From TrEMBL:
Transmembrane segments: 21-45, 177-201, 229-256, 276-298
Listed name of the protein: Cell division protein FtsX
Topology versus the membrane: Multi-pass membrane protein
Ranges where the FtsX extracellular domain occurs: 57-161
Entry keyword set: Cell cycle, Cell division, Cell membrane, Membrane, Transmembrane, Transmembrane helix
Function summary: Part of the ABC transporter FtsEX involved in cellular division.
Listed InterPro entries: ABC3_permease_C, FtsX, FtsX_actino, FtsX_ECD
Compartments in which it is found: Cell membrane
Keyword Cell cycle: yes
GO CC terms, sorted: plasma membrane
Pfam families associated with the record: FtsX (PF02687), FtsX_ECD (PF18075)
Domain ABC3 transporter permease C-terminal residues, every copy: 185-302
Family to which this protein belongs: Belongs to the ABC-4 integral membrane protein family. FtsX subfamily.
Length: 304
């Protein structure tokens, strides 16, 4: 009987403040959609880092005659210098860190350049003397790329050592910044949702002030009086959270898998299982924030 009475009070609150309840639902929906998208983006960044870092190589560029680097002194690397670098990678102190070494001489590098930029004006001015030999080193542990860099930098004939991880990091930094921006927008929207819930609960309590006074006179406890108002806020927030969960799942299903995964087939993306893991988090965050804000609002109103 008491439970039925509480539910009827919740229904009355929804009817009397329908526009405010709809606002709470929409704001919660938008904010938690941003929040869920930010979580998925962080998961995607983690997957991409693992994928690309495993394939990242350290490239050792040997000197060419036109190189201005002090270690080259405008002199191309000799065969002995190239052999010394190769020996250190394959048989020397660096060998335990190296999984595979791929060597490309100047002629091959020049031909690859011609194939890649065929039909452009660059091909007309390029000469084989502009290209030097290089080693592409795949590591056993890509996180130990500094060992290779420190080991060969400064060796005779070495112009530059370039870690592909350093080239990828700015891309991941931009994606992380986008994720944090989404979290910031979601936080602002959640603050708006909390304020809306508090306002809705106060308006609902004010519209039923006579009923509340009667309930107090007949000995109803504060907990019994507060419960319908808290449930109003929680129910509105849960509806918005469920809509946000559906939106996140739809984004993964139709955009990530329906478009990105078919367009970019080189690596995997976050899946439905990840979205299904995020959905309970969104519902939990929405319900918790609503319960706290509604509880504080109604208690402050009853004490006033």
């Amino acid at each position: 009987m008491r439970f039925g009475l509480i539910l009827s009070e919740v229904g009355q609150g929804f009817r009397r403040n329908l526009s405010m309840v709809v606002s709470v639902i929409l704001v919660t929906f938008i904010s938690l959609t941003f929040f869920g998208a930010a979580i998925l983006l962080q998961l995607q960044i983690g997957q991409m880092k693992g994928y690309w870092y495993e394939r990242a190589e350290v490239t050792i560029y040997m000197c060419v005659a036109s190189s201005p680097e002090p270690n080259c002194a405008e002199t191309a690397a000799t065969q002995d210098e190239i052999d010394a670098v190769r020996d250190k990678l394959e048989n020397g102190a660096l060998a335990p860190y190296v999984q595979q070494v791929t060597f490309e001489d100047a002629e091959v590098a020049f031909q690859n350049f011609l194939d890649e930029f065929a039909g452009t004006s660059l091909v007309e001015i390029a000469t084989v003397d502009m290209f030097g030999a290089d080693f592409r080193v795949k590591l056993v542990d890509p996180a130990q790329s500094e060992v290779i860099s420190d080991g060969v930098t400064g060796m005779p004939g070495v112009e530059e050592v370039r870690d592909q991880r350093a080239l990828l990091q700015p891309i991941f930094d931009v994606m992380s910044a986008a994720s944090y921006t989404a979290v910031g927008i979601a936080a602002l929207m959640l603050v708006a949702a909390v304020l809306l819930i508090s306002t809705t609960i106060r308006l609902s309590a004010f519209s039923r002030r006579r009923e509340l006074a009667i309930m107090r006179l007949v000995g109803a406890s504060n907990r019994f009086i507060e419960t319908p108002f808290i449930l109003e806020g929680v129910l509105a927030a849960v509806i918005g959270s469920l809509l946000a969960s559906g939106a996140v799942i739809a984004i993964v299903q139709f955009f990530v898998h329906g478009y990105l995964a078919e367009t970019i087939t080189d690596y995997s993306f976050v899946g439905i299982q990840d979205a299904l893991l995020v959905a309970p988090i969104l519902v939990g965050v929405g319900a918790l924030l609503a319960a706290l804000s509604a509880s504080v609002a109604i208690r402050r109103y009853l004490k006033a």
